[in-house]
C-alpha cells in the first residue's frame, strides 16, 4: 500500500490501484482529485467535471451515512461507472428537499448528472454506483475500454430502475 491524498492509501486490484479513503469529511475533495486523471487518460475529458462531482457526492454520502473505509473506483465500459464501496448497510435514497434545507441534495445531484444510479449489497457492506454515458467514438476510432464489469449485467435497462436495489 502507498500513501496518497492525506490519509488515503492505495490497494492494487488487478491492473489499477483502488484508493482506500478514511472516514474524514476532507476526503471528498481527495476523491474528486483521484477520479479526475483517469477519464483524461481514457480520452474522456468531457466527462471529468460530472465524474468528479459524482465521486465527491457519493464519497460524502458514504462519510455521513456509511461505515468503515471508503473505496471509490471508476470502471470504463459502456457506460463509465463511478462506484463507492463501504461497510455500511444503510442504502441511499433520493430525498425531496425544501429550498431552506441545508443538506440532502447529494443523491439528487448524482441522479441529475448520471444516466442511472443505484446500489447493491456486497459482503461486508454495499456499493453505490453512478453511470455516465460514454461519448460515441469518432468514425474510424475504436473504444479501448475495459471489458464489461460482470456486476454490470445485473443493472436493468429501464428508466424506472434509477436508484433501485441491485442484485
Structure description:
The structure is a single chain. By secondary structure, this protein is an alpha+beta fold. The protein has a single domain (2-166), classed as Heat Shock Protein 90. The chain contains three helices and eight strands. It has helices at residues 27-41, 48-65, 106-113; strands at 2-4, 8-13, 16-20, 71-76, 80-86, 116-122, 125-132, 165-166. The strands form two sheets. It has a five-stranded mixed sheet, covered by helices on one side. Strands 1-2-3 form a three-stranded antiparallel sheet, with no helix packed on it. Mean pLDDT is 76; it is low at 7-16 and 140-162.
Fourth-tier CATH superfamily name: Histidine kinase-like ATPase, C-terminal domain
Mean pLDDT: 76
Distance between the termini: 31 Å
Tell me the number of structural domains.
Answer: 1
CATH architectural group = 2-Layer Sandwich
Helix % is: 10-25%
Output the CATH topology: Heat Shock Protein 90
Order of helices and strands: EEEHHEEHEEE
Proportion of residues in β-strands: 25-35%
Strand order of the largest sheet: 4-5-7-6-8
Given the structure, what is the number of helices?
3
Which spans of ≥5 residues are poorly predicted at pLDDT below 50? Answer: 7-16, 140-162
CATH class: Alpha Beta
Q: Give the class from helix and strand content and strand pairing.
A: alpha+beta
Most strands sheet? 5 strands, mixed
What is the CA-based Rg, rounded? Answer: 15 Å
Number of strands: 8
Amino acid at each position: 500500500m502507498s500513501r496518497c491524498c492525506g490519509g488515503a492509501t492505495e490497494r492494487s486490484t488487478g491492473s489499477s490501484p483502488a484508493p482506500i479513503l478514511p472516514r474524514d469529511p476532507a476526503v471528498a475533495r481527495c476523491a474528486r482529485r483521484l477520479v479526475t486523471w483517469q477519464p483524461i487518460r481514457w480520452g474522456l475529458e468531457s466527462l471529468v467535471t460530472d465524474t468528479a462531482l459524482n465521486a465527491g457526492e457519493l464519497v460524502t454520502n458514504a462519510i455521513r451515512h456509511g461505515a468503515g473505509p471508503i473505496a471509490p473506483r471508476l470502471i470504463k465500459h459502456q457506460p463509465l461507472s463511478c462506484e463507492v464501496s463501504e461497510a455500511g448497510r444503510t442504502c441511499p435514497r433520493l430525498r425531496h428537499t425544501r429550498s431552506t434545507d441545508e443538506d440532502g441534495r447529494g443523491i439528487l445531484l448524482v441522479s441529475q448528472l448520471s444516466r442511472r444510479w443505484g446500489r447493491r449489497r456486497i459482503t461486508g457492506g454495499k456499493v453505490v454506483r453512478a453511470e455516465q454515458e460514454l461519448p460515441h467514438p469518432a468514425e474510424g476510432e475504436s473504444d479501448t475500454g475495459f471489458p464489461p464489469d460482470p456486476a454490470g449485467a445485473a443493472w436493468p435497462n429501464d428508466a424506472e430502475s434509477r436508484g433501485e436495489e441491485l442484485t
